[in-house]
Fold this protein.
Amino acid sequence: MNTAATLAQVDAIAAKAAPKAAPKSVLNESRQIERAAMLIRMGARMQVLESETSLSYERLIRLYKEIAGKSPSKGQLPFSTDWFLTWQENVHASLFLNIYEYLSKGADMDSIDLLTKAWRLYSEQVDSADIEPLLSFTRAWRLVKFVDADMLTMTACSKCTGKFVTEPYENARHFLCGLCNPPARAGKSKVAKSLMVH
Ligand SMILES: [Zn+2]
């Protein structure tokens, strides 16, 4: 008996032993569509959908148009970490990441479920404080990617001890967060529903 024949037999036995293979993949596909639909409703951009589902680009485009009622916006997301380090944005990003890390320690959720749950909680928090949610779902997704890639991390403020999004090499001994050490222009914003410092 040669090896090729043996492998073919093993395949044949495996195929008989697993008759559920086909319906399983249909089930998986419907899960993928469900997931994509949920992400589109949360305002996710195409890059998020392509990264978090196994659906083809063409299918995602069709799904996007159907659910969002418009074509997805073109263009790449910025690859810079700067946005998350600007004062007001940093406070939002930090709030989200604290929620995300808290949730990730508890339940055994898959990463996208964790992300959507954390983002919903973040939105509720800022909503209840009557603050405009600056961190879109796509931004939140990007933030988690930056943290996973060690391009951003969280550092505890040396004054209030709250954890804030920083660059990985931030000096923790001297680090002051944006709330303890706001920029001179902070709180003078004329924009409604923006963060105020008292
Ligand atoms: Zn502080």
Observations:
- Strands lie at 153-156, 163-166.
